[in-house]
Amino acid sequence: MPRSVNHVASRARRKKVLKLAKGYFGRRKNVWTVAKNAVERGLQYAYKGRKQKKRNFRALWIQRINAGARLHGLSYSALMGKINAKGIELNRKVLADLAMNHPDAFKAVVDQVK
């Protein structure tokens, strides 16, 4: 008896990968082996990028808080130490937003911990 090959499933798998490769340049969008490699690499970058985005935003928030704190005569580490000691529960995202967009509110927070 001949070997049975599930063409329906394998075609669906290939179509799924080629759909993910839509918009790629040259053979990467329509040649199965090239597209498969390109999509796999792209998914790896996407996974890594989701982790890196969190790191990058935290670093950005820290820079903004530091810049705002230095306007009021404190360093970032001194400000964060005092905020934690006072028990003020504002995270870095909120503090960075205050420092950038609401300097009066940020000054109030700094004055409260001084």
UniProtKB/TrEMBL annotation:
SUPFAM superfamilies: Ribosomal protein L20
Keyword Zinc on entry: no
GO BP: any one term: ribosomal large subunit assembly
InterPro entries: Ribosomal_bL20, RIBOSOMAL_L20_CS, Ribosomal_protein_bL20_C
Domain of life, per lineage: Bacteria
GO molecular function: rRNA binding; structural constituent of ribosome
One GO location term (cellular component): ribonucleoprotein complex
Record NCBIfam families: rplT_bact (TIGR01032)
Annotated family: Belongs to the bacterial ribosomal protein bL20 family.
Function, as annotated: Binds directly to 23S ribosomal RNA and is necessary for the in vitro assembly process of the 50S ribosomal subunit. It is not involved in the protein synthesizing functions of that subunit.
Protein name: Large ribosomal subunit protein bL20
The species this protein was found in: Dyadobacter frigoris
